[in-house]
Amino acid sequence: MDIKKGDLVLVISGKDKGKRGKVISVLPSEEKVIVEGVNIVKKHTRPNAKMRQGGIIEKPAPLYRCKVMLICPHCNQPTRIKHTFLEDGRKVRVCSKCKEIIDRV
User: Fold this and answer.
1) For FRET with 102, which of 43, 59, 76, 82 sits at 20 to 30 Å CA-CA?
2) Is 8 exposed, middle or buried (0-12, 13-18, 19+ CB in 10 A)?
3) What is the rounded distance in angstroms from the CA atom of residue 88 to the CA atom of residue 45?
4) Residue 49 — left, alpha, or beta (φ > 0 → left; ψ -120 to 50 → alpha)?
5) Which residues pair with 43 in a beta bridge?
6) Confidence (pTM)
7) Which whole number is the average pLDDT over 82-98?
């Protein structure tokens, strides 16, 4: 997957369109990501050993990765990602707009 934990992303479709957030976790087998502060759902819980008191908990739910776009840390714009190899053979992610290296893969 092109998106990794800790990346800043922009939601491009759905009820939270236009919101930005940091990726909390990535679920590669399902091709989903969990973004901080986006797609918040309410979960009703019963009392158990961990939580003495039940109640309604708000937590972020996963989004399909096609609904988010990476924000380049250099040009601060949503961008697609290209992959290139450095001279020493390492594979890196590159911003399509500003051609800067985003980070090591």
Assistant:
1) 59
2) middle
3) 52
4) alpha
5) 57
6) 0.84
7) 92
CA gap 38, 20 in Å, rounded: 8
Residue 1 burial (C-beta neighbours within 10 Å; 0-12, 13-18, 19+):
exposed
Distance CA 12, CA 97 (A): 17
Q: Where are the domains of the chain?
A: 1-71, 73-105
Tokens of 58: 């708000």
Q: Which helix (H) or strand (E) holds 69?
A: strand 68-70
pLDDT band at 103 (very low <50, low <70, confident <90, very high): confident
Question: pLDDT tens digits for 19-78?
Answer: 999 999 999 999 999 999 999 999 999 998 887 888 999 999 999 999 999 999 999 999
pLDDT of the residue at 48: 87
State whether residue 47 is helix, strand or coil.
coil
CA 76, CA 78: separation in Å to the nearest integer? Answer: 7
